[in-house]
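Folds vary. Our protein:
___
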Amino acid sequence: MRVEERGGELFVTGFDGIQAYKIAVRIERDGIAFYEALTGKLRDPGARAAALALAGQEREHLAYFEAELAALRAGREDGFEEDDLASFIDYGLFAPYRGLADAVETPGKALRLGLLVEERSAQFYEACRSAADAADARRELGRIAAEERRHAETLRGMLAGARRGRAPEMEGR
């Protein structure tokens, strides 16, 4: 499987469900860690609730991808090693995911990085949806991509509030 960016859009060629779901599992785990770290730093109850809700949705996505991965692995050999996955994610397309949870020390930076990651995740899931053969997989990937776009909108709203002087207050700041 190959993922490339052209004109700001992600394209998947040679789609492989095992590879795609391994990447998705990593994306969702990083998202959960980010939102949990962010929740621990937010003072505002509304912002905390929003971050907790986002973490919960990421957990739902993770459960789906882990179940799909297990089902695919049961049907065939997994020739995609974990080390390959780590290097694949480091190719640059997924560079924003590195150090995601560390970004929560600065509210604006955390929100901007989270927004970028949610948008990139939605693009990746849409690219996988377009390349997937199974109708069920296409439907579920489309649903998850839409949720990731809603996550981005939530973060965009929080960032807009921060720009108007209503920054989510962080613990210890």
